[in-house]
Fold this protein.
Amino acid sequence: MTTTDLPAVRPGIGAWWRLTVSEAKIVARDTAGLVIPLGMPVLIMVMTSLGVTAEDRADSAGAFGGMSVLEGYVMPLTLTMVLALIGVVNMPSFLATYRRTGVLRRLSATPAHPMMVLVAQVLVSIAQSAVGIAFAVGTAVVAFDTELPADPLATLGTILLTAAAMYAIGMIVAAISPTPNSSVAIGLVAFFAIMALGGGFGSRDALPERLAEIGGYLPFGAGIDVIGATWTGAALDGDQLLALAATAAVGAVVGIRLFRWQ
């Protein structure tokens, strides 16, 4: 039998699981990468909520299906920020670090596939996002008497769809970033760009009409709107859901195609 006749070795479930656990341990040891995506959005939420008076909450109830501005805007903004920081900034920096230090090059000599590394990072990021979201929601409910979502399952669905779009952008950032510093730089630029256009620094109504329209279909703006809609029981915008799904699908394909081991 020649070497060309040898069957290809395919990593099993155990290999995927061990790689994911390894990724989780690495993320847990990175204090800045762990604390900032979880702590900063909650800090901004607390600062914003402290400025919302009882009168403001009552006045805004009519615009958010009987809920206040905290449920209709502040909470969706906070959760979207958690997903964006982890997906667009945090996750790519780890992959770029692996490429720079030669970890990916050594993996390329094994039966491992780039998809394994990407999937492991996405799974760990989802777990980190779940912790961040639970922390934010718990803080809002306990400290500011924020109401829970009107439709929890629909809210969970929009959170997952928004996360998928953010991670897809992060996969592209990871694929094109040769170094950890460039990954952080590109990720931060992308994060602040979609945040500014999506209403992260104030209502999109303050933006020029064309920019506001574009921002509503970018992951940050669409994420705020669809999460806020399900949280308050309002009608969802189908075009925004489609935009998030398209971003997730296209970003994942482009990220995988552009991904390089070194």
Remarks:
- The radius of gyration is 20 Å.
- The CA atoms of residues 141 and 147 lie 7 Å apart.
